[in-house]
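Appendix B. Chain record.
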Amino acid sequence: MFRTSIAILLLASASHAAVTLPALLTDHMVVQRGIPVHIWGKAAPGEDVTVAFHGDSKSTKTSAIGTWGVYLAPAEAGGPFEVSIKGSNQITLKDVLVGDVWVASGQSNMEFRLNQAANADAEIAAAKYPKIRRFKVEHKVSEFPVDDVVGKPWVELTPESAPQVSAVAYFFVKNLFESPTSPAKGVPQGIIDSSWGGTPVEAWTSYRALSSDPALLPAFTEWAASMEAFPTVKARYDVSLATWNEASEAAKKSGAKPPAKPALPGTIPGGPWEPAGLYNGMIAPLVPYGIKGAVWYQGESNASPSRAPVYAREFQAMIRDWRKAWGEGDFPFLFVQLANYKANINWPDIREAQRQTLSLANTGMAVTIDVGNPTNIHPTNKQDVGLRLALAARANVYGEKVEFSGPTLRAAARDGSGLRLWLDHANGLNAKGGGALKGFEIAGANKQFVAADARIEGGTIVVSSASVAEPAYVRYAWADNPECNLYNAEGIPASPFRSFE
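Structure tokens predicted for this chain:
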């Protein structure tokens, strides 16, 4: 009888469970224009829920596990509007805009905040864009796909909120929103910032995608090696933490500034390097939300001798994985090629892998080989990065007649004692600043590259070297911090490349 009474009380409590919404659905949100508007949440099993938005209304009944969702009619850009959700309780979401929504993801150069960027004070003071909104996803690792994120609610960009926004994402949507010739001019823009510094691409890819391709097995091999090394890594961390604790206590007593706390390694159980861990915790919960596309800045953490050779395959698998998860087709995926930096590791290979990724439909790449900082992996010039991403979007997503890329290699063929290169986006080829072209190397069949002379002939480039009688291969800007100067008339630099895979 006691158990029966408890069961009745629990059922009665469940029958009056309030309708709740996921963290993504808040006041000030931007919903994607031109596609059905998805509103979803939880309530008591079997509860009736009605949602109204922009003149449309839909009703549904919650599932046996208390989940519900409705799709409302697509809307054009505009607002503000309200979303009304009624069940046993009522929720009203206010100041909702309809526009374009972009997922901004990757590692530290995407997470890099506006208050860290060049000319930060002036940029923040000018950040008065009530039609640009941001939702910040908090860091979370999960072994399985979760149904909600931990995040900071949508806010409009003001000088008070802008300092913490992703600088790259901000300059990207700012250019779309205010460029006089942009087809997206004045269209509300939403940023869903889901990024985590120092993380590899495999952490942002689902188990489904990683396990479907045997060539991606190294992701699991690397993680297995990390787990085997964990006892040693943990012991070293414990020693450094103890040393830090002693130094901190000494600093407090003397009034000195305490030292920085040692960072917990990412390659630990539950750490952000776990394959699929960030996809499960920070991407999967976003999938029900309609988006325009994604912008991505990552690759540094995969630039090791063991990871770089498979980056092209992994990166392309991740893009396909996200597109499959969202179910919106080949949505635009725009990414940043690694900038110049004295890394002494496999950065040229990562850049080439990124260039190869342009073979996927509806992708675009911002070349940043000229805006990096040779001694800082986090260059502060995020303005040009955002602009070049926006040019790719304006041309390829919105259909604007604007040059969006620097010269890219199309083909190379033997021409006498040299190689002739045909390039796309090659209007007005020039050596920036005048003088000779720099950064070209040539090799014979043995792939032993030497510095080469290069000259512009119309829309092509002829490369040669007196020390290579029978040239077969060419490459350009093939170094971590290369000296290179090939641009087109629009002032956009050429992408580093090589003529073989």
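Further analysis of this model is presented in Appendix C.
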